[in-house]
Specification:
3% of the residues lie in helices and 40% in strands. By secondary structure, the protein is mostly beta strands.
Length: 295
């Protein structure tokens, strides 16, 4: 307010004029500093941090300092709006803050918020089975339905994002064989998965016992043992064990030869060849009183 006095030289005629001068606020709030963007773990909108609603909170979360030529700092108001999340792995969105003074003048700033996939890979499915032979213990990824279902922390299927980390050590008989796979999500988090085969003990089916009829015990010579394989086609070791004769005074009886087979697990199986000695069956038809010379 300015006060002016107009005088004609006679004090009784002096006139005082009051002049009130007013002005408009044409300046928006200003800020200084560099925007601090945010990167946190998360998968969806609900994982985003809450927006600042006061000027002090805004300055804390953005690293900026705001001021206005007319409005007190504490009276500056803050509003915000969020853009859509986008991205195949890490997802980003723009949060726009608007700071407004008491005269309606405002300034806006943009903050980028990025959600990265958390480290939490989930693997479901069987990780073992029993097979008959080592040859059946093939790499699981070569068998339909044997690999597990795998998802990242955000539920995205990463079942095909694997490498074979450790191949199974071959075995020749019963035991276990394990394959180790590494699954990797889009953020390069990894998790190992092991599939273990249990190889069963060999299964062996012995051939029927051998048999032959001979006239004399001396003819019951040691036979050849047949070649034998187990259920996986592995050749079995065979060794002659013993023979046992049971011959009566009439020269009739049996002679038994025994062989022992051994499988790859050192389980043994006896196989017998039995000679039936029938001396009287070989007497000449023309002379029933004749005898066979078994000496």
């Amino acid at each position: 307010t300015y006060n002016y006095t107009i005088s004609d030289g006679c004090s009784v005629n002096d006139v005082t004029v009051n002049l009130l001068q007013s002005g408009a606020d044409n300046s928006a709030p200003t800020y200084t500093g560099t925007m601090t963007n945010i990167t946190i773990e998360g998968c969806k909108t609900n994982d985003l941090p809450a927006a600042a609603t006061t000027i002090d909170a805004l300055e804390t979360v953005t690293g900026l300092t705001f001021s206005d030529n007319c409005t007190d700092h504490a009276d500056l108001t803050v509003s915000s709006s969020d853009g859509a999340l986008s991205g195949d792995c890490a997802q980003s969105m723009i949060r726009t803050y608007t700071v407004t003074d008491e005269c309606g003048k405002s300034v806006s700033v943009e903050q980028t918020i990025t959600l990265t996939v958390p480290d939490n890979i989930t693997i479901t499915g069987s990780n073992s089975s029993t097979v008959d032979c080592p040859a059946d213990a093939v790499a699981p990824h070569t068998v339909t339905g044997r690999m597990p279902a795998v998802t990242d922390a955000c539920g995205k299927d990463i079942s095909n994002n694997y490498t074979l980390k450790t191949n199974a050590t071959p075995i020749t008989c019963r035991g276990t064989m394990s394959y180790v796979y590494t699954f990797t999500d889009c953020a390069d988090h990894t998790k190992d998965w092991t599939y273990t085969y249990t190889i069963s003990a060999p299964q062996v089916t012995l051939p029927s016992a051998g048999n032959q009829e001979v006239p004399c015990a001396i003819d019951a010579v040691k036979p050849e043992a047949p070649a034998l394989q187990d259920n996986c086609g592995r050749d079995m070791a065979v060794a002659y064990k013993d023979s046992a004769a049971s011959i009566g005074a009439d020269g009739n009886g049996t002679v038994t030869h025994t062989y022992t087979y051994t499988d790859c697990a050192n389980q043994t199986y006896d196989w017998k060849f039995i000679y039936t000695v029938k001396a009287d069956s070989y007497a000449p038809e023309s002379d029933k009183e004749a005898s066979i010379n078994c000496v």
